[in-house]
Structure formats: C-alpha cells, structure tokens
Amino acid sequence: MLSLFGFGPLIYASCLLLNAVAILSEDRFLARIGWGKSSLNDPSSGVSFGAVGQDPESFRSKGINLISSIRTLCRVPLIGVNLVIIIYEILLG
Hints:
Layout: H1 8-22, H2 26-30, H3 59-73, H4 75-92
Helix pairs in contact: 1-4
C-alpha cells in the first residue's frame, strides 16, 4: 500500500469516487431522482408556462453537467488508472 501519510490514500479515494460517478446509470438511477440529462430541459419538471427553464447556475444543473462530463471524459482514462493501481497492488502489495 502507498504511504499512509502520503498521497496514496488521496489517490485511492479520488479513483474510487471517479469510478462511482463513471458507472452511474442515467436511465436506472439518475433519471429516477431527477438528475438525468433530460431533466434539464424537461417542461414537465414543475416550470409554469412562460417561466424560464432550469437555471444554468443552480447547484443541480452544475451537478448534472459535472456528472455527465465525468461519465463522458473519464471512462477510458479510468480504465488505465485502475489497471495501474491493480498492477501496483499485485506487485508491491
């Protein structure tokens, strides 16, 4: 294991959190709680006629965009990072 007081636990924790966000299913989980990409422009999400849609500066819309970008950009690099961590743990334990 990497050093207890070094960057090892920080690297492990960030890798685990990115893995957790990358595998979230938009259809099965995110849309069910209202955090799907389609809920940003959905007129049936409680917005009345003539009102502006979802505020692009709100925490919810920023969170939806962050989850979407992590799922898009980090999937392939995370495979490499996970392989490096697995090989490191197997060899140096």
